[in-house]
Amino acid sequence: MAGDEFPETVSEGVPTTNASPPAEPYAVEEPAPRELTQEEKLEQAMKVPCPITKFKGKTLGEVLQLDPGAIKWVAEKFPATEKVGAAAQFIRDFALQQSA
């Protein structure tokens, strides 16, 4: 009869073999990030939250429209090593370049 040569019990699942271990995953080289343009850097700087209590909840870009002197103050009071200081200094310097 057909199937007589097969064992009566069949184990569940896929039969295992002595296959070789999976190959090393291949490495994908990420392209080097491109340098941001001055305008893109300015756009990022304008989105940084303002640390001045009077302007709580506003970005440096919004504060620039309301009180440009506040940006100068932040640029002078916060070190460039802090994100807000670096952003304010970039905005100030960019504005000075544009007016020259």
Give your account of this protein's structure.
Residues 19-30 have a biased composition (Low complexity). With 100 residues, the chain is mainly alpha-helical. It has a domain at 38-99. 43% of the residues lie in helices and 0% in strands. The protein contains four helices and no strands. The protein has helices at 38-46, 60-66, 68-77, 83-99. Helix 1 (38-46) crosses helix 4 and helix 2 (60-66) packs across helix 3 (68-77). It is elongated, with a radius of gyration of 31 Å. The model has no long low-confidence stretch (mean pLDDT 85).
What is the approximate shape?
elongated
Total beta-strand segments? 0
Q: Write down the secondary-structure element order.
A: HHHH
Class from secondary-structure proportions: mainly alpha
Give the C-alpha Rg.
31 Å
Q: Uncertain spans, ≥5 residues at pLDDT below 50?
A: none
Main sheet summary: none
Helix count from the secondary structure assignment = 4
Q: Summarize model confidence as the mean pLDDT.
A: 85
Strand coverage percent: under 5%
